[in-house]
Amino acid sequence: MLSKNQVRFINSLKRKKIRKSEGLFLAEGEKLILDLLNSDIQLDKIFSLTEFEYPESGKVQQISERELRSISSLTTPNTMLAIFHVPETKPVQKKGLALALDEINDPGNLGTIIRLCDWFAIPQIICSKNTVDCYNPKVVQSSMGSLARVQINYLDLAEHLKQEERTIYGTFMEGQSLYKTSFAEDGVLVMGNEANGISDEIRSCIDKELGIPRFGSQNQTESLNVAMATAIFLSEMRR
Q1: In what order do the strands lie in the sheet with 208-211?
Q2: 39 vs 84: CA distance, rounded Å
Q3: Where are the strands (E) in 8-114, listed by range?
Q4: Rounded to an integer, what distance in angstroms lies between the CA atom of residue 202 and that of residue 192?
Q5: How far, rounded to the nearest angstrom, does the alpha carbon of residue 11 sit from its chain's CA centroid?
Q6: Which position among 5, 123, 179, 230 has the lowest Cβ density within 10 Å, counted as fewest Cβ atoms?
Q7: What's the alpha-carbon Rg for the chain, to the nearest Å?
Q8: Looking at the structure, do residues 23 and 112 belong to the same domain, yes or no?
Q9: Residues 134/147, Cβ–Cβ less than 8 Å
Q10: Within-domain flag for 63
Q11: Residue 234 belongs to a domain with what CATH number?
Q12: Is the distance from CB of 50 to CB of 106 less than 8 angstroms?
């Protein structure tokens, strides 16, 4: 059985401050957990409704449905929840394509963007310090295992971009059509905040301002969701 202290501790990992101090994060669902187990991310503990074979049996604890509901972040809990160690931060890569995020707030958007980077083989995401934590349970869930395959760094984005040697592309409603742009092999694509777009401070660091043109005669749609826009940009960059 789960002790009260275990339940309290597991639920505390839903808060960024505790995740940071403990160096741990949560993952739910057998497929997601298996993806993370097959990566370099280190397991701390698995809590499962059924028997689960793992080389270190002491790291697996069988629990009841009621106990799983008491620790799950999901409306309908899956069969398994696990605690993993946050991996060590690697240095920012200086070559190839990278994605930079200027204050992305929505966990679902970040999770989807991580999956997109995995799909399009963008090995790194550079996040501003006020972008949502990539180990937030909702981000982990929506990334569906891609979190283990994409390097994510949090830093002072403006200071970093000032020192970048790669071409920096920024996304704006009024920017030049991305379909008329030739992309460099070494480049950084900046996506802005859901409500306000790219901040003025970050905009001053950008070499080329790009946009997705609207088609048709009415042009009444205000904007695209940031994850949707990221998919269009990454697809065109890879093409």
Answers
A1: 151-155, 124-128, 97-101, 187-191, 167-177, 208-211
A2: 11
A3: 24-28, 43-48, 60-62, 80-85, 97-101
A4: 9
A5: 21
A6: 5
A7: 20
A8: no
A9: yes
A10: yes
A11: 3.40.1280.10
A12: no
Q: Cβ(176)–Cβ(208) under 8 Å? A: yes
Residue 164: which domain range? 97-238
Share of the chain residues as helix, strand and coil, in percent rounded to the nearest 5: 35, 25, 40
CATH code, domain with 81: 3.30.1330.30
Token couple for 15: 């808060």
Residue 1: per-residue pLDDT: 87
52 vs 237: CA distance, rounded Å: 42
**Could you tell me the pTM of the whole model?**
0.94
Hey, what are 171's tokens?
């996304």
**β strands within 102-150, DSSP E:** 124-128
Same domain, yes or no, for 144 and 78? no
Q: Are 95 and 186 in contact (CB under 8 A)?
A: yes
Q: How many domains does the chain have?
A: 2
Owner of token pair 């697996």: 60
- How confident is the model over 191-208, as pLDDT tens digits? 999 999 999 999 999 999
pLDDT tens figures, 149-175: 999 999 999 999 999 999 999 999 999
Which two three-digit tokens encode residue 192?
């802005």
